[in-house]
Fold GNAT family N-acetyltransferase.
Amino acid sequence: MLTDYQSLFQIRLANYDDIDSIMTITREAFQKYKELAGVERVEALEETSEDVRHDIDTKIVLIAFSDREPVGSVRVEILPDRTALLTRFAVKVTSQNNGIGKSIMNLVDRIMIKKNVKRIQLYTGSKITSLIRFYYGRGFYIESTDTSRGYVRAKLVKEY
């Protein structure tokens, strides 16, 4: 019977019931980010459930599941000038390098194109080679860097 072979992987818009899962995924991934970037403070580790609730109300918030377990999330804010800012992209450490992040980003691309977004940007630690390589593989390029948060952050951009 085909029901035994249904996809074990799903990405959908997040809702309030997903807040705890989103916070858990984000904390785990950004704790690793903090260690890899060698920084003292990462804003993502300080957010509250109200912050996540606000993002669900005002941004596109996606959550990914593998075998019905929450394993990834991302938030995208579409700005009035038809550009977008991607934030809090996170995949559980134990679920990384198996296509979840790529699938989330592919869905973000489809949504941005459908919403007529011309360009999306994000910020990440420029010394975290695995992240830079991942984003380059998704069509992003480094537009600039800054040290305003105490470490070198790259502003990556993708044009549609």
Notes: The chain has a mean pLDDT of 94.
